[in-house]
Design brief:
single chain; mainly alpha; 2 domains; 80% helix; globular
Length: 200
């Protein structure tokens, strides 16, 4: 990438970071994700990414990060709608979460659709242990009735996915290699994937 492109993408991530932290703090305090902040941040990120794509002479990236954000939002909206239909008392995924994951997908989508999906999935992974602790602390019955913020976990998942991409770590590829090596019983390759040993 050119210096101008790097600066523009970095500015996009910085804008996302400010907006994401802002709505996360609000979500932790008030259990809500302000629509205006999310869409304003998305507008800034989108504008910077479009310019970066033009500067880098990669117009196809525009479609890619738009599809990344849109697909993440669509997946979460389907989940939201299913929860609404079954009228679950203990599952809660609001439209604010749908909007936030759309923003996250758009932002991380600079690295590709798979990176955006990984970030979305990592949000659940990050939330799981804290959710278990929450249930243990309050009891299963009472814990399931309490409304807890999900936004900060979605942000953490997206940030982690972006960090992995910057470090050159393809999580999906790594997991595929682990699965293949586990199936074939290739212990030495498994150890190498985890960085325990380096075989010549």
């Amino acid at each position: 990438m050119t210096t101008a492109g790097i600066v523009l993408v970095a500015a996009g991530f910085a804008a996302w970071g400010v907006g994401a932290v802002w709505v996360s703090v609000i979500d932790l305090k008030e259990t809500r994700l302000p629509t205006r902040i999310i869409w304003s941040t998305a507008g800034v990120v989108l504008a910077l990414y479009i310019v970066a794509s033009i500067v880098e002479s990669e117009p196809s990236r525009i479609l890619e990060f738009l599809l990344a954000g849109g697909s993440c939002g669509a997946i979460f909206y389907i989940i939201h709608y299913i929860i609404y239909i079954i009228r679950s008392e203990w599952l809660d995924l609001g439209l604010g979460d749908v909007r936030l994951v759309t923003l996250n997908g758009l932002t991380v989508g600079w690295f590709g659709i798979s990176a955006a999906w990984v970030g979305m999935a990592l949000g659940f992974v990050v939330a799981f242990p804290l959710s278990v602790w929450f249930l243990i602390r309050h009891g299963v019955r009472e814990g399931l009735k309490k409304k807890s913020p999900f936004g900060p976990f979605l942000v953490a998942g997206a940030g982690l996915s972006a960090l992995l991409e910057v470090l050159g770590i393809n999580l999906i590829q790594e997991l595929q290699e682990i699965g293949e090596n586990a199936q074939t019983g290739n212990i030495s390759a498994l150890l190498e994937v985890f960085g325990i040993i380096n075989w010549p």
